Amino acid sequence: MKPLFDPLTMGYDWEMAVLKETMESAGDEEIIRLSDRMRNALPWSRVGIDDDLLEARLGTVRTWDELVEKNTKYMEVARKLAAKKKYIILPIGARPTEESPIGSHIHTGTCTDFSGAIAV
Fold it and tell me: What are phi and psi of 94, to 5 degrees?
């Protein structure tokens, strides 16, 4: 039987602030609009929101180069679309005007096979 995690894969969710020039959140409605535009521009991505944060969901990746390539493209598109509304994408671990951390988490050993995922 083939191991469930062969080859080992990974993915991550990265929450980032979308801010107005005043450093306030752009707000849920604007972030939803931005995520919708991003999904159209990056059909392979699973862009979404988490609270009032834009969430990068790059899907399962199999190599470091693939992760870097997808993340770079994601950030280019996010910044370009946000700039049209003069918004700032802030991919750091905290909001600049609050004492509220925002973060990310990493998934390793992702099962891409449905029957294997059920087994786990």
Answer: -160, 155
Among 67, 51, 50, which residue's Cα sits nearest to residue 59? 67
The position carrying tokens 């972030």 is 31
- Are the C-beta atoms of 87 and 97 separated by less than 8 Å? no
Q: Which amino acid is at 119?
A: A
CA angle 92, 98, 33 (to 5 degrees): 65
DSSP string covering 30-88, please? Answer: HHHHHHHHHHHH-TT---EEETTEEEEE---BSSHHHHHHHHHHHHHHHHHHHHTTT-E
Q: Whole-model pTM?
A: 0.78
**Local confidence pLDDT in tens for the 120 residues of the chain:** 565 566 667 777 888 889 999 988 899 999 999 999 999 999 988 888 887 889 888 888 888 899 899 999 999 999 999 999 999 998 876 666 766 666 656 566 666 677 776 776
